[in-house]
Amino acid sequence: DAAALEIIRRGAERVVEVSDDEVAEAIRVLFTDTHTTAEGAGAAPLAALMKEKRKGRIGIILSGQNIDRPWMQQVLAGATPQVA
């Protein structure tokens, strides 16, 4: 939605676009490394951080654990679920 994106851009230093595959990898990393379950939107900040390979002290917000079991099973098996 263009209006929402405009609001975000006014307050954000920059916006990083990530792919579904990058988000799926972030979900896997969170689960494997921290045993934390995250939905795609919740894992997107980590996906952006991993994409940019930033160093130093960086904080991200992880929110949203609403991921369905079949989707999580696909992600943990190495796949990227697709909306039908």
Order of helices and strands: HHHH
**What coarse outline follows from CA principal-axis ratios?**
globular
Euclidean distance between termini CA atoms: 21 Å
Low-confidence stretches: none
Classify the helix fraction into a percent range.
40-55%
The largest β sheet comes out as:
none
How many individual β-strands? 0
Q: What would you call the structural class? A: mainly alpha
From the alpha-carbon coordinates, what is the Rg to the nearest angstrom? 14 Å
Mean pLDDT: 90
Strand content: under 5%
Count of alpha/pi helices: 4
Write structural notes for this entry.
The structure is a single chain. With 84 residues, the protein is an all-alpha fold. Helix content is 55%, strand content 0%. It has 4 helices and no strands. The mean pLDDT is 90.
Briefly say what this structure is.
With 84 residues, the chain is mainly alpha-helical. The protein has helices spanning 2-11, 20-34, 40-52, 69-76.
List the main descriptive attributes of the protein structure presented here:
84 residues, mainly alpha
